[in-house]
Amino acid sequence: MTSLPTPSRPPLRSVLLRSRKHTILGFDPQKLIKYFFGSNASVAIIVLVLIMVFLLREGIDFLPTYQRELQTYRRAGLEFCDIIDQPLQRNQALSSSLRQAVSASLETLSKPARDRRDAAFLLKRRVEDKTLRPRESLTQVLEKTPPEPEQIEVLRRELGAASAAAAKALDYPAFFSTAEREQMQREFSALTPEVTDLPPLLLTLVEEFNAKDREARTQFAELVTAQEEFEEAAEPLQEVLDELKAKALETKEKAVEFEVLETNRQRLLEAAATETDPKEKASLTKEAEESVAEAANLEESTREITSRTGELREQVEKYAVVIEKAAAVLPKDAGTGAARKMVNDVREKIPEHAREMRAAAATLEGWRWDKPVSIFRVIGAFFFGTQWITNSSWQDFYGFVPLLTGSLVIAAIAILIATPVSVVAAIYTNQFASEREKELIKPVIEFIQAIPSVVLGFIGISLVGDLIKDVSEWSWLQWVPGFPIQERLNMFNAGCLLAFMAVPTMFSLSEDALNNVPRAYIDASDALGATKLQTVFRVIVPAGISGILSAILLGLGRVVGETMVVLLVAGNRIAIPDFSAGPGVIFQPAHTLTGIIAQELGEVSRGSSHWQALFMVGIVLFAISLLVNWCARAVARRFEPHKA
Amino acid sequence: MNPVPTNDNPFAGDNSGIQQRETAARWALRVGSYIVVIITLAIMLHIFIKGAPVVFQSKWPFVNTQFLTELPATLHVIEDQQGNHIETDVNGADAVKKKLGDDFRSEKTISYSGGGILGPIVGTALLVIVSVGVALFLGVACAIYLSEYAKHGKFLEMVRLAILNLAGVPSVVFGLFGLGAFVLTAPTFVDVPADRSVFAIPLGFTTLSFEGWDTCVLSGGFTLAFVILPVIITASEQCLQAVPQGFRETSMALGATRWQTIRYSVLPFATPGILTSSILGIARAAGETAPIMFTAALAFKDKLPWQKDLPPLPADASIFAHWEQSVSRFLGIFTESVQALPYHIYTLAAKIPQNEYAERAQYGSVFVFLVLVASLAASSVLLRKRLRAKYRW
Questions:
Q1: What mean pLDDT comes out for the span A151-178?
Q2: Which chain A residues have a beta carbon less than 8 Å from that of B373?
Q3: Which of A433, A514, A631, B137 has a 20 to 30 A CA-CA distance from A403?
Q4: Pick from A334, A364, A405: which is nearest to A105 by CA?
Q5: Residues of B in Cβ contact (< 8 Å) with A57
Q6: Contact, A469 vs A496, CB < 8 A?
Q7: Under DSSP, is residue B86 helix (H, G, I), strand (E, B) or coil?
Q8: In Å, how far are B311, B319, B330 from B314, measured between CA atoms?
Q9: Are residues B77 and B185 in the same domain?
Q10: Which residue range(s) make up the domain with B80?
């Protein structure tokens, strides 16, 4: 028996401990791979930081820029004029409601006559529209030289036939008597292009209306004169103010021009300082010296404006006296209830308006052209400013409030609609629905998520807007505040669509929350003899409430940040919605934080104050989204159910 | 409805009221949930009814190929004296007018509404390719770290928090970020840095200048990539987590390194899932408008991105020169600004007056867009279902 040579086996220990590591640049490749993935994981953090950095980089200069602009606004005296001009705006509002009251009163007498006149004109227009083509060809032929009588005759007959047919097909309103209808039909059939006079019946109707109108004006003479007086009262004051405004604007333009030249000069000088070539340096310096602009003498021109303070105050005082007098003679009665209410409203508001004007005039004395604008005022002017005015010839204001209100109102509407719907759907699918129903409901709701927001915005323009408008005109719905609505595109429309968009997010998160309720809770409830409904609403929903609340918050985040729907559908009117309209306010158009960025950023030049203001809005939006996310997490943690 | 139970049990109270309330509440909940379903279906139906006639036709080849293969153009509608309307494009308008002569009556032009929507489709496809490419790379790598490497700690928490917050950032803020970062700042190789360059690193033969890529496919694609990044990360991580732990343990027990484990025991089983989920990312990227408004999209462009006039090569140009030109032509595709479907719809809906011709273009584009996005989403859902049936461990 020959013993086989046992293969020499290296000791196990040394095999295990043998260093098999090959290194790359002194690093373990396994470590390198790990670091590679780790660095990719940090991309999310890096992107968040970068978003902040780039938003701040473009937007942070907004405060100093806006401060400079407001400084110029003050120094050039624009602010001085606005002290009086702003309260004077109320005059317009008051006067327009007076005008409405007057016309409503006049209408009580003249409405039938006016309706008849307008209807007749409308009918004539319809006949003309329908016979447009023969009429045009006839006009062309008539203008031809030499005239072709035969062709004219043919065309004339054609037009006559068309007019007669059109006049016959018309739908005459009931307030025309049979005789009038026949006359009208005759007259419309005889319409020809070369006769521009109105047909006799129309003339009669016009005359009829004028007579009624005169009659109405005599009856409401007091109201009419009071309204006219009120409107004229502001004129002398406005004249003085306009002069001052023109002066201030001129000063401002000079100041701005000087600033531009000055910065340009500074840049040239800087360039000259770093330039090495002596020739270039000389030319740059020369150019800089040439562009020295004369600084606008702000003090002098502002003094010119302030020197007229006395005159201005006098005018304000006069104006206040006149409007108070007008308020005193305003009649107690008007044609209709609504008009009476409006008149009374104006009468109550006039003393307040006069007081306001006097107070404004009193502050004129204390106004100083050289008082610096503090940075806190600038911050206040941005965050609490009620005007967002851009590309204005007077002064640009970047006030945040109108946009924020629009965004918040729309978000509130959307959440109020979406919450019940999605929570109900989540409860139903999770607890009651059969498997087949689940197979239908879940995919459909999840599919909503895939619908791009621009498509929904388009639906809002093309379908929902008209739908809401039509519904608002139904007579049995007139008790709803705000109906019938004026604008097709409004906050309610946008809110509905955003609610639709938010449903899938809120639905799936709520359903997850309900799913996570421990089985033991349900069993316990069943064992106590609770019905299904009791179990659902007393046990499951309260246990899942944290998840549902955080779902609502995340839905809110989605709604506030949505851009395309609000840009297309919200109506884009930059003004604080008129909350005095009550709940009907939701049918007004508005602008939003996201919409304003999308709409205006494409049209402004980089680095301008407008550009920076839009980036500031972006910063605020970013902060809001972080805040909402944080709240959602906090809520989810706060109400966390004790897991069984 | 449930039958009212007979009151055999002497201890049971009268519960008929409860029964009715139960049923009523059940029906209320059911109606509430079906409202959403019905509204969704109604909207789909509306778009289908209005949009399908634009895209389909009753004659062979049943699809309006002109609408799908032409670039958008201004539509000229010419009316003659008899009231007939003739639709034509810019070039056709003069010919038609000449032919009509005295018969010509009026001409209307409707911007963007003529031609087809090939330009926007191509633009959206390019944007999606760039964005999904970038997002898949970053997202899958991030998910592998989160699922395979990360240990509980500060860093992991921060990453998760960042992903959550990133998902909540409004899309228009991404647009601002893309504008600031990619359009105005991103590094690029140029011969002479522009004035706006943040800083420039001279490299000898060229300069690496941080002056941005301008509005182009690349800027828009990168911006969109970060918009969809959270979606991709979350979906990929789920797929990786779904691979049973035993696979990893087995592999490690056989002596494989961690990377080998991931490469051979985890990724092969997770990849199909990752790819299907990323289809959802594609749908999302295709649907976003706000991020590309300032970074890539144009309202109107009469050329496709690759139709660019490059100087003709000399006849004796080397093969290298030809090669170089085709490469630069290819790369040029990504440095062009493009039209995109969502932005095209926005332009059609918001920037031109509404009339029947505009409406046709609008519903046509919306229909095509929705069909694309919906089929992507649906295929993702179906594929996921099939995968789940296939890999059942």
A1: 80
A2: 450-452
A3: A631
A4: A334
A5: 180
A6: no
A7: strand
A8: 9, 11, 20
A9: no
A10: 72-115
The per-residue pLDDT for range A369-423, each reduced to its tens digit, is 777 888 888 888 889 988 888 888 888 888 889 999 999 999 999 999 999 999 9
Q: How far apart are CA B197 and CA B177, in angstroms?
A: 17
Instruction: Mark whether B214 and B360 lie in a shared domain.
Output: yes
Domain edge (last residue) among A204, A221, A238: A221
Number of structural domains in chain B: 3
Interface test with B, best of A16, A30, A454, A628 (most B CBs within 10 A): A454
Provide the residue type at A10 as one letter: P
Distance from CA of B129 to the nearest CA of A (A): 18
Q: Tell whether the model's pLDDT for residue A39 goes beyond 70.
A: yes
In the structure, what pLDDT confidence band is assigned to residue A1 with cuts at 50, 70 and 90? very low
Q: What is the pTM of this model?
A: 0.84
Question: Backbone phi, then psi, for B302, in 5-degree steps?
Answer: -100, 15
What is the amino acid identity at position A136?
A: E
- Kindly state whether A458 is in contact with chain B, defined as any CB-CB distance less than 8 angstroms: yes
Q: Is residue A529 part of a domain?
A: yes
Indicate which CATH number applies to the domain containing B231.
Answer: 1.10.3720.10
Most A CBs within 10 A among B21, B80, B176, hence the mutation to make, goes to: B176
H or E segment at A577? none
Asked if residue B125 and residue B23 are part of one domain, the reply reads: no
Establish if A604 touches chain B: CB-CB under 8 angstroms: no
Domain residue limits at A626: 401-638
Among A604-613, A629-638, B245-254, B329-338, the least confident range: B329-338
Taking only the tens place, the pLDDT of each residue in A556-597 is 998 998 999 999 998 888 888 888 777 888 888 899 999 999
Question: Taking a C-beta distance cutoff of 8 angstroms, is the pair B252, B298 a contact?
Answer: no
